[in-house]
Amino acid sequence: MLRWNKQGSIWLALVAILVNFISSHTCSAIQCNVFLAESTIPNAGLGIFSGVELNPGDPVGNGDVCIPIFNVEKHHEEPSDAINDYVWAGEVMGMKLEAAPDLIEANCLGLDSALNCNLALINVARAKPKYDDAGLHRSHDPAAGSITPYHNGTTRATIKVPIGGELFKHYGDEWFKGRPDLFGESFPLTEDFASAEEIINDAFSFGEETARSILEEVIFPMQRIWGSRVMNAIPKTIDEASIAFREGIEMVYQPNATRSINWLQEHGKCVDHIIPKQSTIEGAGRGAFAKRGLPKGTIITGSPLHHIPMKDNFIPIFRTLRTDANSDEAPRREIAGQQLLLNYCFGHSESTLLLCPYGAGIGYINHNQTRTNVKVVWPDDGLMSHDETWLRKQPEEMIEFSGAHLALDYVATRDIAAGEELFLDYGDDWEEAWNGHATNWKSERIWSSSYASAKRWNEKVDGIPLRTAEETSTDPYPANLHVRCHSELDEDDWGSFEEWPASEYGYPCEIKERKKDTKGQDIYSVRLVTEKYDRWDTEFESPQVLDIDGVPRSAIRFFDAPFTTDLHLRGAFRLPIGIPEAIMPAEWKNVPFSVYSDP
C-alpha cells in the first residue's frame, strides 16, 4: 500500500511538474494550418506560412474583415502614413463607390496585411471581401455603422505549396514601380518572370546539352553586362534553369521560401485558431469563435501593431462649411465623422496614441465583461517585431518611424471549447460609452425604417421588371440607390452577367425602354456613360455616352450612392478598445483628459 508520507509528497510534486510540462507542450503543439513568422525575404518583416500542404483552390485561413479608410490626405495637412504600405486600393476590394470620387483604401486585417509579395513565387490569390451588414439595420440597431460590412475575404492557393511554404500575394507591378529607391529600375516584374521562363523553355527545346551551351555562352554573360528586368529574372545557374524548365520558374525560389514546422512552432505564432460566425450577442453582428479546443494559456493569435502617434492626424473626417461667395474668409471645416478604423484599434483616454492590430481573426472579437475568456499581453521582446524599448517611448518619439515595432498576444484566460465565442474586455470606459450610446441612440433619419442597402434591394427586386426613366419620374427608386450597367456592355462580344465580381462597378446608366425578347424575357434599351475604371486606368480619356439595346436584366444592378451607407451615419458609435491599465506604459499618457469624444 502506498503511504502518503514525505516521499509521497515528492511524488506528487513530480507528477505536478510532469502535468505542467505536458500541458505547456500540448498548447504549442495544437494543430495549426497558418503561421505568422519572420519572412524568408530579407528585411521584409513578418510573413505568412502554411502549416499544411496546399493545392490550387485550397482556402488559406478563415476569412477576415476589410475596413474602408477614407482619403486621409484630403482631410489632414500632415496625415499619418502609418499604414500606407499595408492597404489595398479600395476599388479592387469592392469599395470604390463608398465615397466616390474620393479614393478609398482598404485596410484588410489578417492575411492580406501580413502576406508579402515575391513576384517569382505568387502562390495565393488576393481575397476580395463579401458585403454583408450582418443583419444590422439603422432603424433599430445602435451598432449600425460601427462595424465593417466588408468581411470573409478568403485567400486561396493558386499553385501547390509545400508544408512550411511562405505565402505570397501579388501587390501589383505598380507597387514596385512606385518605389524605385528600394527596388531600382531593373527589378523584374510579373511579365519578366514569364518571359524568363519562355527563354529557358526555348533553350531546353534544343536538348539539355545545347541548352547548357546557350546558357553558359550566351545568356549568363549577357546577365552580367546587361541588367535588364528580364535578364534579372532568369535563373543564375544551370541547375536552377533546369528546375525552371521541368517544374516552372517559381520552383526555383520555393526551397528558400520554406521553413520547417518545428521552426515555425518555435519562432512563429499560430494564426488559425479563430473562425468568424454570427455573434451570440444580439445586435453585435459577427463574432470570433474558437476553431478548436484551446487550453488556458494558449496564445490564440499574435498581432503586430500599426502605431498612430497622433490620432488627430488620421481619425477625424471633416466637411467644409459653405460660406458666402463674396466673403474673403477662408472656408471653415467641422468634424463630420471619424474613421471606422478607430473601432478596431487600441487606445487610452490619457493618450494620443492608437495601436491598430492586423492579426488574423482579431477584428471579429467582441466585448463582453461577464464572459471574457481572452486577454491581451505584450509578447517577449524580439518576437513578432515587438521591441520592448517602445514601451518607454513617448508618442511624439514614434512619429518618424514606420513599420511594426509593437505587438500583442491574445491569450486564453481559461480553457475554451471548440465552437465557443471569444470575448475581450474592452475596458470600463468603453462599456460606459457603449451603454450611453445604446440608451441615447436615435436612428439617423425619420425614414430610416424604409432604408434598404443596394445589396438588400438587389435581392428584393431580383426578377422584377425595372422601371424606365419615364416611370421613375413619378415612381422613383430610393435616393440612396443608383442604377449601373455592366462595364462589358461597351464590348462587342458580351459574356454572362450572372456574376458581378467585387471590382465590377459597371457604368452609370439610364433605362430608356423595356420590352420582351422572343423568349418572353425582359430586355432593356439603356444609355450609359463610361468612366475611369480605377486609379491606374491610363487608357481612359473622356466619358463616352453609349446607347445600347437588348440588354439583359442580369447586366443591370443597383449600387449604393456615395456617402449613403451605414459607414457614413453621423451618430455611428466610434471608440477604440481600451489598452488595459495592467499593460499601459506611463510614458504613453501624454494628455490629462479624454481625447475620445463624439463629433
From TrEMBL:
Keyword Lyase set for record: no
Organism of provenance: Cylindrotheca closterium
Presence of the UniProt keyword Signal in the record: yes
Official protein name in the record: SET domain-containing protein
SET domain span: 272-427
Keyword field: Signal
Upper classification of the organism: Eukaryota, Sar, Stramenopiles, Ochrophyta, Bacillariophyta
Pfam families found in the cross-reference section: SET
Signal peptide, first to last residue: 1-29
InterPro entries: SET_dom, SET_dom_sf
